[in-house]
Amino acid sequence: MQRPLSPENRGWPEAAPFDAIIINRAQDEVQEHLIDLLKERGCVIIPVGEWSMQNLYLLKKRDNRLERQPLCRSISCPWQRKPASKKKP
């Protein structure tokens, strides 16, 4: 198992396709580019929703599209799209 540091939710296209992907930061919505990172019949576990509460989904790639299966409610840290600015004291 390897874990890249990836800016802006790009994933790791250089190492794709993957059998499975686990995303542990909440997303506002399912990113459609995930389909390009998965093998056919691959899957993704992903929390989707607002800061206070998300739904955990199992996404499965079938016939080059993502099927979405809700698993449970969850709470996780949101993805930060832009790094916080560093203010000097």
Automatic annotation (TrEMBL):
* Family annotation (InterPro entries): SAM-dependent_MTases_sf
The GO terms this record gives for MF are:
methyltransferase activity
Native source species: Methylobacter tundripaludum
**Taxonomy, superkingdom:** Bacteria
Lineage, broadest ranks: Bacteria, Pseudomonadati, Pseudomonadota, Gammaproteobacteria, Methylococcales
Record's keyword terms, sorted? Methyltransferase, Transferase
Name of this chain's protein: Protein-L-isoaspartate(D-aspartate) O-methyltransferase (PCMT)
GO terms (BP aspect):
methylation
Which Pfam families does the record match to this protein? PCMT
